[in-house]
Amino acid sequence: MMLAAQTRAQIERARDRYPQPRSAILPSLWAVQHELGWLPPEAMAEVAEILGLAPSEVQAVSTFYSMYFQKPQGRHHILVCVNAACALRGADETVAYMERRLGCPSGSTTADGMFTWESTIECLGGCGGAPMMQIDHRSEENLTPERIEEILGRAAAEPVDHHGAPPSGGAAG
Fold first, then answer.
1. Residue 3, Cβ neighbours under 10 Å: how many?
2. CATH code of residue 55
3. 69 occurs within a structural domain
4. In angstroms, what is the C-alpha Rg of the chain?
5. How many domains are there within the chain?
6. Above pLDDT 70, what percent of the chain?
7. How confident is the model at residue 168 (pLDDT cuts 50, 70, 90)?
8. For residue 64, what pLDDT is reported?
9. Which of 6, 62, 85, 104 gives 20 to 30 Å between its CA and that of 32?
10. 37 is in which domain, residue-wise?
């Protein structure tokens, strides 16, 4: 058994809330990610056992959604939008600055484990304030090197206990 009793209980409550156990996969994965910071294969197998599903069903869901982490992450997760509106307003420069500032390429975690970041072509919905990024699911718009420094400094100073999961442990909105 890898998961804490509290996490197992949360998964059982989710299972019991739905007519089909498969419907509880998303909130169950959030509960695991909230506890562990990512979704190790052993934990997904445990979710499958609790829900009475094949491990492949749980793993298929976890790999379909980008909000679930398949490897250990930094304390803070950053997505930098490089879609059309952001690209037109300086996303390439933002990505280059992030690479220099964090010392690692998109898709990586900083050496100190503080930040995992990636650029994404998926629109993050802040086109009016482009270029923009999300950090721990919070949108930050009108990025400049100075704004990025402010955002990263604020994030580094705050404690994090959620590894990308919404505070309620429910599905992201």
1. 20
2. 1.10.10
3. no
4. 17
5. 2
6. 92
7. very low
8. 92
9. 104
10. 5-64
Tell me: do 14 and 81 sit in the same domain: no
Helices (H), the chain: 5-17, 25-36, 41-51, 55-64, 84-88, 91-102, 145-157
Helix (H) / strand (E) element for 122: namely: none
91 and 56 in a single domain? The answer is: no
Return the residue matching tokens 């580094």.
Answer: 156
8 A C-beta contact, residue 77 and residue 164: yes
Res 164: pLDDT:
45
Length of the chain: 173
What is the residue whose two structure tokens read 């609790």?
Answer: 50
Same domain, 109 and 54: no
Tokens of 137: 């699911």
Looking only at the bridges linking them, the beta strands covering 133-135 and 108-109 are unpaired
Contact of 47 with 75, CB cutoff 8 Å: no
Q: Give the pair of three-digit tokens for residue 88.
A: 């037109």
